Amino acid sequence: MATFTIIWYLFLQFHNGLLQQVLSRVFPFNRGIFEDYVANFWCTLNVLVKIRRIMEPTAIARYCLLLTALFSFPCGLHLYFKNSSRNLHISLINVSLAFFLFSYHVLEKSILLVTLPASIASPYFSFTAFWFLSISHFSMLPQYAKDDLIIPDVVDLLSIVCWLIAA
To answer: Is 34 exposed, middle or buried (0-12, 13-18, 19+ CB in 10 A)?
Structure first.
């Protein structure tokens, strides 16, 4: 709590407009529901229904919050009644996937937030974790190419393969 207070106090103390800039970066509601073409629910739905044309950004943000919470809730409920480390790992994967699929302004690299819980759960689902990690890294290839990071991506992917083979 003290660290949180100190960090936000610095933004409040020095510049009045700085807090607004920080909040607009943390909550990017003015940037739209998605950027480029992310493989999430909203981008897929946008092929059939042009969401941005028929709904206000605040209404879209409410729907994003509602669907993210709705798809995260069963995992939390299951974890509450049947808590174990295995169920915690599965819940972490499901909640991070719900965030990726339904939250507001998802970027391509947000799939990497799911890879950490998938890596942690690899002892339970080694084959599935291997394929999920491989596909998520492969899906990031255009982003890596844009940033000239193809070689580090290949090295990272090979390290995942070696790590999973050793496990």
So the answer is: buried
Structure tokens at 27: 């909550």
Residues 6+ apart with CB under 8 A from 38: 106, 107, 108, 110
Which of 137, 69, 129 is closest to 109 using CA atoms? 137
- What does the pLDDT look like over 94-127, one tens digit per residue? 999 999 888 887 777 788 888 889 988 888 888 8
DSSP string, the chain: -HHHHHHHHHHHHH-HHHHHHHHHHHS-GGG-SBSS--SSHHHHHHHHS-HHHHS-HHHHHHHHHHHHHHHHHHHHHHHHHS--HHHHHHHHHHHHHHHHHHSSSB-GGGGHHHHHHHHHTTTTSHHHHHHHHHHHHHHTHHHHHHTT-HHHHHHHHHHHHHHHHH-
Which residues on adjacent β-strands are paired with residue 34?
A: 106
User: Whole-angstrom Cα distance, residue 159 to residue 167?
Assistant: 12
First vs last C-alpha separation in the chain: 38
